[in-house]
Design goal:
Helix 1 packs across helix 3 (about 120-135). The protein is mostly helical and about 200 residues long. The chain is built from four helices and no strands. The chain has one domain (about 1-200). It comes from Elysia marginata. Keywords: Membrane, Transmembrane, Transmembrane helix.
């Protein structure tokens, strides 16, 4: 009888010990899982915040670049307009007051022959002079020739302006692409670092 009681008591102690061990193991596992989940959530939150910051920075940089380019273009256009107005006034005054039509045509011919390289820079002046010649000359041939020169010179000016605009656009696109690539690389590094941290934490 006494032996049965001792045996029964021992079984109870063993069962209780096993229960305690199981409970401790379960608690430890739960704590580890909770810690891992919390760490993963924190890492995800940090990655999302960093991504948002990078996106905001990229947008701000792009906006700043666009604003700067627009300001530069506006300043250049204003300067060009001022220069053109000054040139027009000077040429008109010179033509009306000083130069006669025949001398003017000789001057244009000589200028074209002497400045092959700088024709594009000279086109605006040619347009102005030819317009004045058309308005002041009574000869049909002179008017027709002047009109043809005006059209050709205007086309050359348009082509030159288009080339300048194309260069500006290419520069802006290159700058924007470089900035975006830099921040994408930064984002890639951040994501890879976060992934490594998560993997090490799980291990």
């Amino acid at each position: 009888m006494l032996g049965d009681q001792v045996k029964s008591g021992t079984e109870v102690i063993v069962v209780a010990a096993l229960v305690v061990v199981v409970v401790v193991v379960v608690v430890v596992v739960v704590v580890v899982v909770v810690v891992v989940v919390v760490v993963v959530v924190l890492v995800v939150i940090v990655v999302v915040i960093v991504e948002l910051i990078v996106v905001v920075v990229v947008v701000v940089v792009v906006v700043v670049v666009v604003v700067v380019v627009v300001v530069i273009v506006v300043v250049i256009v204003v300067l060009i307009v001022v220069v053109v107005v000054v040139v027009v006034v000077v040429v008109v005054v010179v033509v009306v007051v000083v130069v006669k039509p025949k001398q003017l045509l000789r001057y244009i011919k000589k200028k074209f022959q002497a400045t092959i390289v700088s024709k594009v820079m000279f086109n605006a002046e040619v347009v102005i002079i030819m317009v004045v010649v058309m308005l002041t000359s009574k000869s049909v041939k002179v008017v027709v020739a002047s009109a043809a020169a005006v059209v050709a010179s205007a086309a050359a000016v348009v082509v030159a302006a288009a080339a300048v605009v194309l260069v500006v656009v290419v520069v802006v696109v290159v700058v924007v692409v470089v900035v975006v690539v830099e921040y994408l690389l930064l984002l890639f590094v951040v994501v890879v670092t976060a992934a490594v941290v998560v993997i090490k934490t799980k291990r």
